[in-house]
Amino acid sequence: MNTRMGEVGALLLSMGLLMMGNGLQSSLIALRASQEGFSTQVAGLLMSMYFVGFLAGSTRTPKIVARVGHVRVFAALASLASSAVVLHPLFINAWFWCGPRLISGFCIAGLFVIAESWLNEVASNATRGRLLSLYVVVTMAAMASGQMLLNLADPGGFDLFILITVLVSLALLPVLLSASPAPAFTAPEHLDLRALYWRSPLGLIGCVGTGLSTGAVMGMGVIYAEQIGLALGDIALYMSLVYVGSVALQWPIGLLSDAFDRRRVILLVTCLSAAVALLALAVTGAGAPVQLAMAFLFGGVSFPLYSLCVAHTNDALTPRQMVAASSHLVLAFGIGAAVGPSLAAACMGWFGAGGFYAYLAVVHLTIGVFALYRMSRRRPVPLSEQGACIPVAVAASPLVMGMLQEEVSAPVIVEATVEGCGGGGQSRR
C-alpha cells in the first residue's frame, strides 16, 4: 500500500510540475507576443496553434507509444518540449512562433497521456474516485501557481523561458523513476461520432462550447488583462484566480448536478457564466480588485461546465462506451479550444478589450439556447439513472477520462418518445 501511495505521489508531482510549467508558458507567450508588438489577432493565432498541437498529441500519442514504448516516448517528448520553449526568445517572429507553439501543444498533451496512463494503472476501484478528485486539485492548483511565476523575472528576457524548461525537465524524474509497470492501452468498444451525438447532443455540443470558452480564457486572458491596464503582478493574479475559482466551485456544482436534472444545471451554469461575462464587460474600465473578482467568478462558473457535459454524456452510455466516447469528447473540446483564441482575438480586434467578455457571453448564451432546445425535445433522465458527476480537468486526456467508467454507475438508457419525431426510439440527451 505504501508503495502504491508513493507511486501516486510521484505521478501527481510529475503532472503538477508539468502543469505549472505549462501554465507559465501559456501566459508568458501571450504577454511576450503583446510586448513584441504582435497584433491581437496574431496572438490569438499563436494560442490556437498550441491547442491544435494539444489535440493532435492527445490522440496520436497512444499509437506512437504502442510502437516505441512509454519511457522513450516520454523522454523524447519532454526533450522536444524543452527545446520548443527556448526557441521563442531566440527568434522573435510571429509566424515562426506558430511552429514552437504547435510542437509545445503536441508534446505537453503526449506527456500527460503517458503520465495519466500510469495514474490509471496504480488506481484501484476503491481509490479511483479520490485520485480523480486529487488529480483535478493538483493540476488546477499547479496552473494557478504557474501564473504567479510571471512575477519572478522580466517577461521580456530569457529567465522565465529557462524556468519553464527546468520545470518540464524535472517533471520527467518522478515518472521515469516510477517502479510501476508500463500500462497497456486497451481498445474500447467502438462508438462513432454520429452515434455519440445521437445519444447525447447536448453533451457533445456542450464540450465544443466549453472548448470555445476555456480556450479563449487560457489563450487570451493575459492579453485582455494587459489591454485594460493591469500591472504585471495583477495580470498573473488575474489568470491564477481563474483556476482558483474553478477548483472552489467544481464540487458544489457537481453535487448540484447529481441532485437535479443535469440539463437544468448545465443551463443554470452556462447562463451564470454569460451573466458574469456581461457584468465583466460592463465594468471593463474598473480597477484591479473588480477585475480580479470577475476572473474568479467566471473561472468558477464556466470551467466546471466541462465536467457537467462529460457526466451528462456518460448518463447516456454504458461503461465500455464511456471510454470510446472520451476520445470524441476530448476531440470536441479540442476543436473548440483550437478555434476559441482566434475568435476571441477577432472580437477584441473589432471591439477593443471588451470584445473578450462579449465573445464569452455569446458562447455561453448559445450553449444555453441549445440546452433549452434539448430540454424541449424529451423528458429528463430519472435521477436514479444519473451517474455521479466527477470533476474532470480541462486538460484531461481520453485516458484519464476513461477512468470514469470504473467509478460511475452504469446508467440505463431510457427508451422514450422524442417529441416531433413521430414515434418512439432511443432517447437523445
Protein architecture, described:
The chain is mainly α. Helices cover 76% and strands 2% of the residues. It has a single domain, classed as MFS general substrate transporter like domains (Growth Hormone, Chain: A). The protein contains 16 helices and two strands. Strands 1-2 form a two-stranded antiparallel ribbon. A hairpin with a 4-residue loop joins strand 1 and strand 2. The longest helix has 34 residues, at 2-35. It is globular.
Give the N-to-C terminal Cα separation: 41 Å
CATH class: Mainly Alpha
Q: How much of the polypeptide forms β-strand, as a percent range? A: under 5%
Physical arrangement of strands within the biggest beta sheet: 1-2
In which range does the helix fraction lie? over 70%
Strand element count:
2
- Give a short account of the largest sheet: 2 strands, antiparallel
What pattern of helices and strands is seen along the backbone?
Answer: HHHHHHHHHHHHHHHHEE
**Integer count of domains:** 1
The overall pLDDT, averaged over residues, is 80
Structural class per helix/strand content?
mainly alpha
* Architecture (CATH level 2) name: Up-down Bundle
CATH topology type:
Growth Hormone, Chain: A
- The CATH homologous superfamily name equals MFS general substrate transporter like domains
Unreliable stretches: 409-429
Count the DSSP helices: 16
Shape: globular
Rg, rounded, reads 21 Å
